[in-house]
Write a structure and sequence with these properties.
Bound molecules: cytidine-5'-triphosphate
CATH topology of the largest domain: Rossmann fold
Largest sheet: 8 strands, mixed
Number of strands: 21
Helix content: 25-40%
CATH superfamily of the largest domain: CoaB-like
Radius of gyration: 25 Å
Length: 400
């Protein structure tokens, strides 16, 4: 899976830097293009000559090449990479990455990287166990970096404990598995609805809800990262997808969302209904602003909005997979299963507003995924991006 992949190998100043040579050899042997970026301290442990000979590229350490003045663009490097691997990652580099201390080429490249980042910590056991290091590692994890946990064993200090960098062969396996999984949705066309809908009362007022679209866009990014061709039909939101291949069609009302979905659905393999669609719309939206002074207290007559998920469910053909959401406050499981059946869904993602950290606006969510045969998987409270991975894992599994 590593063939043709562009990998930035970041090396920092730890004794485990000698293992980076084996990792570099393994990456090159697997067919990857590798650009080594080393910190000044890393250069004390391993010579750039060895690394450039093995990678076939000059090793980058400084912002400029001293004799030519050539500028090394961390931005271009960050865009070039399919993955960045920092092995070994010292406590110092982890701290800088977690806190944005961009005082060397490696950390600036990390901050510019669009691609997934893998971090293989290596340090003495007490440094590893220190709350500062643990907090920084947790911060990196919460920013969707992949932490390749260090192992227990004898350390350079001859002490025994957790802090040995994972073996290069294992790091290669992690990367290989990641790219394998990354492309498990290749060729799949996925439609995702996200965000709220706004239903006009008059030209300046609407009925809406608190949805921000975070969950739907996280799912879109995850699916696109794994090779799918993704289109999001989004209500009014202020966020954008991180993956540049995700197409976004902006709509305002439930009717407009339905029209966009109806056009896309026949050509899609999967639809994921993550939007919080307003259930009702004003029957007769005013074309001029309703004035407070002259018209007293208005009564707004409402009509039912179309159910987008149920409409797609009705026209679902063999081989298409339809996934819905259920945001509930009580009798959660019963309500979710009832929606699954009524809307002809294949899977429903249940989240309960009773769970702390779940729901609108927050960056975390806690979900259960229930399939058509009522098989249920409960997940822990996680970042929305990590929840998106779980949901897409379930969908990819069901689509096999
Ligand atoms: N949904 C939809 N169109 C609607 C209402 C809901 O596509 N008009 C989708 C949502 O995107 C979600 C699922 O249906 O995937 C369930 O949404 P939810 O609001 O929980 O269900 P409702 O059918 O509106 O039921 P209720 O509000 O009574 O809980």
């Amino acid at each position: 899976m590593l063939k043709g992949k562009n990998i930035i190998l970041g090396i920092t100043g730890g004794i485990a830097a000698y293992k980076s040579v084996t990792l570099l050899r393994g990456l090159v042997k697997a067919g990857a293009e590798v650009q080594v970026v080393i910190t000044p301290a890393g250069r004390e442990f391993i010579t750039p000559v060895t690394l450039s000979a093995l990678s076939g590229r000059p090793v980058i350490c400084d912002f400029f090449t001293a004799n030519t003045g050539e500028w090394h663009s961390h931005v271009d490097l960050g865009l070039w990479a399919d993955a960045m691997v920092i092995a070994p990652a010292t406590a110092s580099t982890i701290g800088k990455m977690a806190n944005g201390i961009a005082d060397n080429m490696l950390v600036t490249t990390y901050l510019s990287a669009k691609a997934p980042v893998f971090v293989a910590p290596a340090m003495d056991l007490d440094m590893m166990a220190h709350p500062t290091t643990q907090r920084n590692i947790e911060l990196l994890r919460s920013y969707n970096n992949h932490i390749i946990e260090p192992k227990e064993g004898e350390l350079a200090s001859h002490l025994v404990g957790k802090g040995r960098m994972e073996e290069p062969e294992k790091i290669l396996e992690v990367l290989d598995k990641f790219f394998d999984q990354q492309s498990d949705l290749k060729g799949k066309r996925i439609l995702i609805t996200a965000g709220p809908t706004y239903e006009r009362i008059d030209p300046v007022r609407f009925i809406g809800n608190f949805s921000t679209g975070k969950m739907g866009f996280a799912i879109a990014d995850e699916a696109a990262d794994r090779g799918a061709d993704v289109t999001v039909v989004a209500g009014p939101v202020s966020i954008k997808p991180s993956n540049p291949s995700v197409k976004v069609i902006g709509v305002e009302s439930a009717r407009q969302m339905l029209d966009a979905c109806n056009k896309l659905w026949p050509e899609c393999d999967i639809a994921i209904m993550a939007a919080a669609v307003a259930d009702y719309a004003p029957a007769n939206p005013a074309d001029k602003k309703i004035k407070r002074e002259h018209q007293g207290v208005p009564t707004i007559e409402l009509v039912k909005n179309p159910d987008i998920a149920a409409t797609l469910g009705q026209s679902k053909r063999e081989g298409q997979l339809l996934v819905g959401f259920a945001l509930e406050t009580d009798n959660e499981t019963d309500h979710a299963i009832e929606k699954l059946t009524r809307k002809n869904l294949d899977m429903i993602v249940l989240n309960s507003l009773r769970n702390k950290g779940a729901g609108f606006g927050v960056d975390t969510n806690q979900v259960s995924v229930i399939s058509k045969n009522e098989q249920r998987t409960d997940f822990e409270l996680k970042s929305k991006r990590a929840v998106a991975t779980d949901i897409i894992d379930c969908i990819a599994e069901a689509g096999k």
